[in-house]
Each structure stands twice: as C-alpha cells, then as structure tokens.
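Bug #77: duplicate submission created two jobs. Keeping one. Sequence:
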Amino acid sequence: MLNQFSRTQLLLGAEAIEKLHGSRVAVFGIGGVGGFVCEGLVRSGIGAFDLIDDDKVCLTNLNRQIIATRSTVGRQKTEVMRDRILDINPGAEVRIHNTFVLPENIDELPFAEFDYIVDAIDTVSAKIALVMKANELHIPIISSMGTGNKLDGSLLRVADIFDTKVCPLARVMRYELRKRGIPKLKVVYSEEKPTRPIEDGSISCRTHCICPPGAAHKCTERRDIPGSTSFVPPVAGLLIAGEVVKDLTGVRGGGRAT
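Kept job's structure:
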C-alpha cells in the first residue's frame, strides 16, 4: 500500500523499513547538526526518538538550525523538534529530556532502550561519557566532530576516529579515547582547516548576549564562539542520518545488505 515511506522502500526494501519503524534512536544535541539528523531519520521511517538537549532556540540559531524560525525563538529545542517530528510522522514516538548531559548525570537516561546513539553535542567530557556508555552497553554510536568555522561541506567525511586528520576536536577525542582503551568510534568530521572568525564586537554574543536571564548555560561561558553557516552543519547531520539508517538496516549502496 502506498504510504509516505514508499519511495524509501523502493531502495531499502520492506524488511528494512520495518526495522526502521521498530528502532529507537537517541539524539544528543538538537542543534545545527542534530536537528538535521532528526529530520533525516524521521523522513526515513525511524519509529521512536529520545531527544536530549537543555537549550532553547536563540535568534542566532536562525542561520543554520532547521527548528529555528521567528515563531520558535525562546522555545525548548527538544519540544520544537518533537512537534516537527510528529508533524512529519504522527505515528512516531518521541520522548524529550531537557537536560545538559554531563558524566555525572548520564546514568539518569534510559540507555538500555536505545538501538542507536547519535552524539551531536559540543562538550568533550560529555562526548567521551557517551562513547564510554555506548561501548559498555554495546550500543552503536556515531559522533559529530566540529562543524563550526567551516565553509566547505564537501570536505566532510565518515570515518573511524583513529583515521581522522585536520579536525582539532577529533584530535582531542582520539587522545582521550586512546587513554580509555576505546578501539573505534564512527564519526563525521571535516578535513577543512577551520577559518578564524572575524573579531567584531558589534555582533558578538560575548558582548551582546541575548540568552534569557537565568539561562543555565550561556554562549558567554564558551572559550570561543564559532562562526557558522547554513550549509555545513546540515550536510554533517544528513550524513549521520544516512549512516544510522544504513547501520540499522544493513543496507548499503546498490540495495545490498552487509
């Protein structure tokens, strides 16, 4: 019977679509990358989501985040993404967790229920904690490396963390994971040398912070505030979504299962 996933089924097959419908994916970080991960996954037929982020949509998100519009500024990112997912597929199940993930609170999340984990967060300590948890529970995981200060989406690659180069975040992750005995980690990273942002105090979040009073985490807390574009983070997000779909179904190029 014709349905919204029919075109995908023509490539992946009915069994793969059923597998996607029955899978639960946890997306950590619903920003420029994570939002497009969710977009690609819900349109592919993933049946259940856990969305983890404590941030709210900010005016400065409008240049790159799929959930950011004038009408959503100030709303919780997880709630906006949940509504968008359900508008695309009302049959999906979406659980939201408005929390800032840290090594100290990571065990509060229902990892045992996840079929796949997407790491699209910025904090190194939290990224490492996610990888460690996934490794402990044998849950497949893919991590996004840095997309800030990049201008060329064609230089994004899918690779094992220990085969990466150029990316400063990947370098830190390689070092930390090697120390912890983690043998592998699938990542999306860029081989583009980061561009140094223009120093302009008139448009800097550091000097013109618009985070609401009482916000738990502000841009001004960051050591560096990266520049960003509308066309690099989405490429990373959709690459990740594609890897999740292919890993869950076992279907690769040419419709062949692996």
